[in-house]
Amino acid sequence: MDKREGISYALHSIDDGMKVAVGGFGGAGFPESLVSALEKTGKKDLVIVSNNAARFEGLITSGAVSKIICSFPFGGASSTLRAAIVDAGVELQLLPQGTFAECLRSAGSGLGGVLTRVGIGTAFAEGRQIINVNGTDFLLEPPLAVDVALIHAEQADRWGNLSMRGTARNFNVAMAMAAAKTIAEANEVLEIGQISPDRCDVPGIFVDSVVGPRSTLESEDL
Amino acid sequence: MDKREGISYALHSIDDGMKVAVGGFGGAGFPESLVSALEKTGKKDLVIVSNNAARFEGLITSGAVSKIICSFPFGGASSTLRAAIVDAGVELQLLPQGTFAECLRSAGSGLGGVLTRVGIGTAFAEGRQIINVNGTDFLLEPPLAVDVALIHAEQADRWGNLSMRGTARNFNVAMAMAAAKTIAEANEVLEIGQISPDRCDVPGIFVDSVVGPRSTLESEDL
Amino acid sequence: MAWARDEIAGRIAADIPDGWVVNIGVGIPTLVPEFIPSEREVLFQSENGILGMVALGPDGSPDPEMIDAGKRPIAIRPGGSFFESSLSFSMIRGGHIDLGIVGALQISRAGDIANWRTDEKMIGGIGGAADVCSGVRNLWVAMLHTTDTGESKLMMECGYPLTAIGVVDRVYSDLAILERDGVTWHVIATAPDVDLAEVRRATGFPIESGDEQ
Amino acid sequence: MAWARDEIAGRIAADIPDGWVVNIGVGIPTLVPEFIPSEREVLFQSENGILGMVALGPDGSPDPEMIDAGKRPIAIRPGGSFFESSLSFSMIRGGHIDLGIVGALQISRAGDIANWRTDEKMIGGIGGAADVCSGVRNLWVAMLHTTDTGESKLMMECGYPLTAIGVVDRVYSDLAILERDGVTWHVIATAPDVDLAEVRRATGFPIESGDEQ
Pick from A143, A170, A200: which residue ends a domain? Predict the structure, then answer.
């Protein structure tokens, strides 16, 4: 069982129109090699599922993106990104950040969605089913399953076990769970047994492809 | 901020009639000191929330338990326990084990319950609300909040950060989240900073009392 | 001659592909790991929070914090991991486990399984059985074909309380290996000196004659 | 004389009890940690997955994997922990966070808060604001009392899209500290040389005259 793949080979599983989750919060835990390689593939109509839109300007301006599902597309300063999104006719779907994370986990956990009080009485409740549980109303937000997840880890092994550092965990864990195919880039690829069973942030069962550090990518490419 | 308490003092927060979650799967991660101290308090009408009933024979025979919420009360051999449960008129509520764990997590996460396919078409669907999400039916199981959780850890610090070993994590994590008050017994109580931020299985925010190893209990007791 | 329990486990082990993650229940399924060829990497998951569990070797000392779902002492192989119960059942319900191998009291033609109690009134425990049977990608049942009194455990409709509906993919019994497609059952193999007619007599629903060997 | 931003942050810091876990939003709230007395143990949570974050010291080198929710480089104190986003929001929604300190565009008499965008048509992001405002045990708002054009941000009903309803417990503004009980607002303190009449003029809903100082 060896999940190590060259980056181009791993990205072959992404087809036009797919829903692609991308981990990271700001630059922390962002799979930069995978996204920059994805930009070169010329895919179309991708639905990007990521907390923030700021790092997808390349994909957006090249017309690769039809929709972005996120919680915080960009801060106030990103005027070029804002214009790019409008120009490219990209649809934006916003979810509160906790709902966004939990909907990913829900999909990966075989559950039917998330019942939350967050958004009750606001625009986030529009079009949502309200479910009353023991006298309290909750919004029902359906699970957010994705075709492919692109995530980042500090360390990986060939079975796809991942270990992360600092605030780089963020959405990477729930996205690995939610995806039909999870591609993880890692700063370091270790031998089996070098990731402690007590320090494994994402068990290999949730990971399908492991892409090594940038320096080793070219020679490994298939 | 110091959450270390003597075991008797910590257990003062348990009142008659309370819902008390107890961690552990078999003996792994079972808070033995806390349960054996609880037996001596003479509480009544407790609702025990624990995966298994086998370790509560003392509480049951002394009449302390009115109900047990669990997934697997006992194996085939526990005839004395079986008889004790019937004799004491203890009500048993069974949940599939994954639903049991997820309902605890749901309560601790401020969510409205669990939507699961598990139990559809079986007796576990009886009396449950069915919610249709995008064409698929799910059972709605309400969150399982508890008054107090008694859990076990390998290591703790005075802020309640916990680190666990092997298969001892089990329900201890979700129960810590689900409880209004969580009391953790630990084999070892360390200084702040000795539990790595990357190796903290239960952040101290979920823990209210830390009870040290048995040998130090008497002198610390308040 | 019918297959013995060890032989059933051996047949199952032979059919598990390299790289699969497998959850095993109590009974015959617990015998499966020892028949996995050593060069094949198969990971065993136990719902109490371990991926990559292995038998405790003869020199291993039992650790009370290291047990499987049957509460027997175990060890972990390099590359394994520990996790808490809600994540464990995310794996199981979420379809991340390639295969579940369980025992059964009864199996229906439509793939329903009853494997947790015989009587509505009996006190018993469901444990993780319903989650495993509902959630895994493939569910194989290891069981004896008939009860001690000779009645078939494979029947048109189960009489015992159900664990999950429409989930059984294969049955590995002492008499045969059967595979289900909707309500159609095929024989993949029969035990030595057991013929299709004998399997049919011992089975409470029709079996196709197509592709048996 | 109205309080400056630093003074608002200082007033908030003075009111946070030892042992509280606090989530802080962008703007004035980010100034609060530096005013916590060093002997007081207050833990700051950031929704991107850290409990116990502290400012990166002058000698600290920024680590790209160590940022706060405002994407500024931070460090972690001994006794802190890292976790993934769904657990982070379990803490937030589940009522485990003692206090959230956020900025606001508008606050209503009933405690509704609007703090994520001014216009239905504007492209903006909610981030974790709705979760924090709905989930924490106590929600304190740090804000200027009026807009640049002199209109009150404290009004009978918010005009901007809401973040959460009925959640604001206190407002720390440049003019006063106000506390809400249902639709009743009390003044806890006013800034130096600011009197109750001035606070009332600057506020779009009634303020009780009872217990101001």
Answer: A143
Whether A112 has its CB under 8 Å from any CB of chain C: the answer is: no
User: What's the distance, CA C143 to chain centroid?
Assistant: 8
Residue D60, domain extent: 5-209
Residues contacting residue C195 through CB under 8 Å, at least 6 positions apart: none
Q: Which of A162-171, A186-195, B188-197, D201-210 bottoms out in mean pLDDT, i.e. has the lowest? A: D201-210
B:D CB pairs within 8 Å: 61
Q: Which percentage of chain A shows pLDDT scores above 70? A: 94
Q: Tell me D4's DSSP state.
A: P
**Residue D121 has what pLDDT?**
60
**Closest chain C residue to the Cα of B31, Cα to Cα:** C65
What's C68's domain CATH number?
3.40.1080.10
Contacts of D91 in chain A (CB under 8 A): none
Cα–Cα dist C85/C83, whole Å: 7
**D27 touches A at CB < 8 Å:** no
Q: What is Dmax (Cα atoms) for chain D? A: 51
Residue labelled with tokens 């833990």? D43
Q: Is the pLDDT of residue B220 over 70?
A: no
Same domain, B109 and B57: no
Residue A222 lies in a domain: no
User: Does the distance separating the beta carbons of D18 and B1 come in below 8 Å?
Assistant: yes
Digit-coded pLDDT (tens) for A59-118: 999 999 999 999 998 766 567 888 888 888 999 999 999 999 999 999 999 999 999 999
Name the packing angle between helices B97-108 and C85-93 (round to 10°). Answer: 120
Give yes or no: residues B208 and B153 share one domain: yes
Predicted local distance difference test score (pLDDT) of residue D120: 60
For C2-44, the pLDDT digits (tens) are 999 999 999 999 999 999 999 998 889 999 999 999 899 999 9
Domain boundary, last residue among B112, B143, B174: B143
Predicted pLDDT of residue B81? 83
DSSP one-letter string for A103-164? HHHHHHTTB--EEESTTTTSGGGTTPEEEEETTEEEEEE----EEEEEEEEEEEETT--EE-
Domain check: are B71 and B116 in the same one?
no
Q: List Cβ neighbours of A217 (8 Å cut-off, separation of 6 or more).
A: A6, A7, A33, A211
Complex prediction ipTM:
0.96
Tell me if there are at least 3 CB pairs under 8 Å linking chains C and B.
Answer: yes
Neighbours of chain A (3+ CB pairs under 8 A): B, C, D
Q: Choose among C156, C152, C183, C154: nearest CA to C171.
A: C154
Domain assignment present for residue A184? The answer is yes
pTM for the structure as a whole:
0.96
Same domain, A39 and A78: yes
Task: State the Cα–Cα distance between residues B89 and C7, nearest whole angstrom.
Answer: 45
Residue B19 lies in a domain: yes
Q: Contacts of residue A122 in chain D, CB cutoff 8 Å? A: 130, 161-165
pLDDT at A218: 46
Q: In chain D, which among 144-173 make CB contacts under 8 A with chain A?
A: 161-166
**Total number of domains constituting chain C:** 1
Helix (H) or strand (E) holding B49: strand B46-49
Q: Please, are residues C68 and C48 in contact by the beta-carbon 8 Å criterion?
A: yes
Give the residue from A72, A95, A118, A201 with the most D CB atoms within 10 Å of its CB, the best one to mutate: A118
Residue span of the structural domain in which A116 resides: 99-143
pLDDT for res C166: 98
Is B109 within 8 Å of D51 when comparing Cβ atoms? no
Closest Cβ–Cβ partner in D93, D123, D128 for A116: D93
Using an 8 Å Cβ cutoff, are D88 and D47 in contact? yes
> Nearest residue on chain A to B136, judged by CA atoms?
A112
Q: Which residue has the tokens 């990103």?
A: A78
CATH number at residue A71: 3.40.1080.10
Do A89 and A41 belong to one domain?
yes
